[in-house]
Structure prediction request, 571 residues.
Amino acid sequence: MGWRRRGFRRRHLLHAYLFIAPVVLLFGVFRVVPAVQTLLYSVYKVELLRGRFTFVGLDNFRALLADEAFGQAMVNTLAYVAAIVPISAALGLGLAVLFDTRFRLSELFKAVYFAPMVTSTAAAAMVWWWLYNPQFGLLNVLLRLVHLPDQPWLMSSRTALTAIIIFSVWKSLGYNMIIYLAGLQAIPAQFYEAATIDGAGALARFWRISVPLLAPTTTFLLIYNGILAFQVFDQVFVLTGGGPANATNVVVLDIYRQAFERFNFGYAAAEATVLFLLILGITVVQYVYSKRFEVAY
Amino acid sequence: MGRAAGRLALYAVVTGVAVLMILPFYWMVVTAVSPASDILAFPPRWVPSRLTAEHFAVAFAKAPWLTYYGNSLVVAVVSVGCSLVFGLFAGYAFAVYRFPLQNLFFLLILSTLMVPVQVTSVALYVLLARLEWVDSYLGILAPNFASAFGVFMLRQGIKTIPVDLIEAARMDGAGEVRIVVTIIAPLVKTTLATVAMILFLGSWNDFLWPVIVINSQELRTLPVGIALFKDPYGSINYGPLMAATVIATGPMLLAYAVSQRYMIRGIALTGLKG
Prediction:
């Protein structure tokens, strides 16, 4: 029996490594190595066509600090994250509360709210590019119908980032609502019943029961949306290309420009390293806070 | 009385938001099928004065949309297919076997979720340039042959299968590969379907990596095709542009209309794309 067992185990060891080999190799070559190399390239000057890599120490990072376009991209990205994350979470929660009651056609409404989520960001942004047209776009046409002044939308550095944020809220609202709705429906009904017997009104029930018990959902959405928002690219590329005058330039767009339009691969790698540290930062914060916010019921 | 007013307010809010959500889609379709004079009219023409296909003709004359469809389809099918097969076997290994460095390998796979292509694109491009994979299907597919999300989901799914079932199959003399294909796969078919749907959606709508790695027009996927259809120097004609977005978004929206319950549940349960 003993020898059979050992033979069994050895064969299974072989199977185990064979079965994970494709994923490990593919990820090793196309994900892990490029990730490490990006960090490495950030201290090199990379000349791809000549195949020349020159070590430059922290020069790329020093140049980053002095680079106004990157500074602007950083500020814009942070402003975008700071706006999109709480707005879509708050609106998502508000809608989820409405959908937590039973009413006719609620499934249809849910499907409509979620529809932007399944469309490609690039294509949906193209539709909004038309809506935002200052002369003939539907948004200004509607403003004129109710005798409000036209807005420049994407054309002015004052309003362009707001216009992109509005698009992104439209795109992600359904997702936030669905996730909150799932969270709400997981809260046992007797909590609300007990509170009602104790004389708590609807508002008190929302703030004292729903909001605290939804803390894990909220944490998840803030982290998930935050990480995605730091990587915003598609809608900026289509709607403004970063303009006017860098007013909507964002980190990933700057990486794209530096690497694939100007071929400053080392410099772009330094920018990517900064982005990586931001994402890592959120993940660490999540790890620390997720323990604190865990609610048992 | 109060209850009726509350219902009314509920429907007012819910309908108002629904109008805001659907208006861009509606206007896209209306612009695509309206004659040019309607498109620039004030007040806006909510219903076209007559239906026209001329914008679609222009859109098809200016860009090879069927080629874009083909490219998107090839990339999505190959990446989803490979991710499912590799994910099924890797998920089985992580769920069923105990082997040295198991946790290290698993963490290595999950850690790739932390470094999206937004971070790795620079070095990945340099690597693919050396392999001469830039501007090819292989280039688009390279980071998408396997999915950490797929491995994780399938491992979770396979873990719920009783070990006795696998042991019984082994007693009957079934090899491990046969067990995975004929016993495990059917038992986790719901997970497989959900993972396939989410990965397909992610691949179909992916933009950043394809736009980086593709230079030739014949290799563009749909999102890249639509984004680069807007000619920054030429005069802009919104009818053909919206016809193009209808072409690009139509099939996915139709698929969604048919299976929205299933798609919403799948995405809500698992988060979107890894």
